[in-house]
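As described in the Methods, two query proteins were run sequentially through the folding procedure within a single session, without resetting any intermediate state between them. The first query and its resulting structure tokens are shown here.
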Amino acid sequence: MQSSVCCSRTQIVLVGSRIEPLTFKLSSCKVIQCKVEYNSSHTTKSSLICITQVRILRAAKREGLIRARLMGARKAEGTVLTFLDSHCECATGWLEPLLHRIALNWTNVVTPTIEVISDSTLAMSTATNLDSMSVGGFDWNLQFNWHVVPERDRKRRLSRIDPVRSPTMAGGLFSISRKYFAHLGSYDPGFDIWGGENLEISFKIWMCGGTLEIVPCSIVGHIFRKRSPYSWGTGSVLKKNSVRLADVWMDEYATIYYERVGGKGNYGDVSERKALRQRLGCRSFQWYLDTVYPELFLPRHALARGPIENAAVPYCIDSPVSHHESGRTIVKLWPCHGQGGNQFWMLSKNGEIRRDEGCVDFPGGDNVIIYNCHGGRGNQEWRYRSDGSIYHALRGLCMEASPGNKLTLASCKPGNKRQQWKWKRQVSAAASDNKRL
């Protein structure tokens, strides 16, 4: 089953190509039990035995999550829309705190605090700590991530239960004024299936005059699956969606994403979405970075960027970067492919070789690893020198493509091509050599 839930203030609209028996708890309202009856062939229109607060819409074909939500939003009649995934569980009293914030200001868009539901036991965690909440961000691969509440936002809150501003939302769990959703142009109807819609709507909420908040007193559990339960068809759906949002909303910063994914590819016509942005008089993406998310590392501040290719062999430094795998991912050498991705790196002014929040780290021993960037130099301080060597400042060793094409650190040997690396500089090499990074 692929379905989406769109709650208005007075009703639930269920959208999907196939709907099965369901149970909902609407905050302090009584439990609503629904039964959907099919005939033996499952081909005719189903009948619903339920109270009238629930309506079911059935798509004629598979539309994907994004268009299913648009379909539900068009039919909803309440003043507030609340979008939920079908694999959620709502705690008692989850809805009222969301509605309260929108009642105060129709441009407030609010998300609940998300707890994790185990995909194997269906048990919901109770791990939320109001003193150490996280807010949403993103990296330059346009992937959502979590980070701690910045000090400036902690100072803004008068109480630990006050809403906290968030640069982005995690996904599809949020409430918004129906009028404001329409004002913003809803989701991009050119998006396919799933992916990127959370960042697209987050950017335009902030850039077009709204505020995005996480509400601590609203608790909703969500199942985070280990893998996608359905097929995505051909081509890269996520890349297409992300290129569309980058082209419309990210101004000159869109090129950073294109560099990561090997160009734009085919992403359709976005002229109507650009016209929407112009009509709304939205701010620039630079304003968003400066005002809403100044904590994000900007590639323009990098001293070098792109793939790091060895001078002796056509191999590049290659590794995925994952916050959850910090300290466990070994950096390897892999044939250079020119597609960015796991071979795209930046050299920061602090000497970090990084991709977003993951840094190349040498703790000693046999392996170079990926560890969360900490800003403390130490194991993460590297110098890209004028002879092409990459020098580890703490250990006094140089990166080397050893025989067998394994990435190691060894005593520096001038003229050794296996210790020389080609990396596109953005400042002079002399400046990197003569200044402490």
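Immediately afterward, the second query was submitted; its sequence and tokens are:
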Amino acid sequence: MTNKFDITKVNGKATVIDIGHSYPNFSSFAGAAGHPDAVNRTELINNGEDVNLLVRGRHPDDNGVLYVVATKDGRKAIFGCRGLSIKYEMPEITYDEAIKNAEKAIEVLRQAAYAEGYAQGKFDAEMERVATVAPKGPKELPQEKRDLIIEQAKQDVKRLLGESRIRMVPNLCGELESFYPNCTYPRDEVEFVINREKRTVVALIKYVAGKVWAKGIAKCAPDDCFNKHIGKVIALHRALGLEVPGKYLNVPQPKKVREGDKIKFIAPDHTFDGRIETVCGVDEDGAIWTKESSGWVGEGDCEIIDDSKGDDRE
């Protein structure tokens, strides 16, 4: 018979933060989890109490994450993930399984270290090429370096969100909590909130059920060009409690106007001064055309304020 609750034995610690998310009468889940004594109890578990995580599963109606928990004195209960602040959690395994997993983890880490070292080596080599070979002239060097850093930012976000390991992340209360978005039944997900007007990117780490439990914020400096990919990688590092690599904090400014860029007119004597428009074309003579206006503008009469391009969902 298929386990409709997706029951998994776990080891972990948590603190009860909202007893309103308990399930005192969910006997079918308690029975399937092997803890029938977790329901219909008179001894309640209250907010602020520390508990051990025993079992993790899914609610068949809304797919929310459920846990069977127990206090030190043996009181048990069923809680949804919104009712707990989880300090850490890991699957329950045997000694032999732990040895196999450790060997596999070592191999994965070895391969990952090689891959990351190889990728960083390629990046460093390309940076050296950009710094030493300049067939297009010195004005092109910052643009090439910016392009490379943006591409690596995209790959870093993809890598961090694709990790299969459990990462311990500080939550909004400053306590460490397990984060694993990439598993068979993920408990967590990351949402990026991009605000081009405020020039900010916020990375929200939340339970699949909806509650935000960690976040990181990236804010573009007033004189810098906004790029959502740079913002996403900075915000995600901060949400995960990781140090932001320096290359993402010191990205060269763009020097070349391209289709899709957001530009701001900076011609004081022009009626369009301060207006923001989207580039739809640039000709060989450097004339810039925008979607919003019928005329053209020269490179010296505008500045690039956003070179993200594309949809914010990308």
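Residues 262-306 form one domain. We note this only descriptively and draw no conclusion about the first query from it.
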